[in-house]
Amino acid sequence: xxxxxxxxxxxxxxxxxxEKLVPVLLPAMASLxxxxxxxxxxxxxxxxxxxxxxxxxxxxxxxxLICIYGGYFGAASGVLLLALLLRTGHMTLADANAxxxxxLGIANTVAALAFTFLSRVHWLAVVPLGIGRLVGSALGPxxxxxxxxxxxxxxxxxxxxxxxxRLGIDAYG
Length: 173
Fold this sequence. Notes:
The protein has nine helices and no strands. The N and C termini lie far apart (35 Å). The chain is mainly α. 84% of the residues lie in helices and 0% in strands. It has helices at residues 2-12, 15-25, 28-35, 42-50, 52-72, 77-88, 93-118, 123-146, 149-172. Helix 3 packs across helix 6, helix 3 packs antiparallel against helix 9 (149-172) and helix 5 (52-72) crosses helix 7 (93-118).
């Protein structure tokens, strides 16, 4: 459902507004959040335990919004969700990455179906994108399992920041 909301936003937003909106929506802060390891003190863990249900509700709302954004544009939605999962949970990078792939995979599938039936699709562009997705989905888990988490966090953060800068230059430069 949330992927469809993002798709509807994309289809109803003027192209000029979309170009100006992307750098704002693309949160470079998520890239930085991924790079910084989460270190919770014993006191923070106790406080978090008391606010567990409120935290779960806020996390679910944030995931909902990220999925809408993913259906709307997609760029860096994986970085956003990965940052959220790493900052709010106690997952390893590999586990957070797997959860991110499942959640955004569902949202993106719904958005893709909406685009298929509600807009014109340039099918020749779908082929290389599909091949890239298949190769990435096969190689990604292998890379995540075999790359040290610290180095991988830095690589993801640098790539996310580079994308944010590039989109900002394209939109406002």
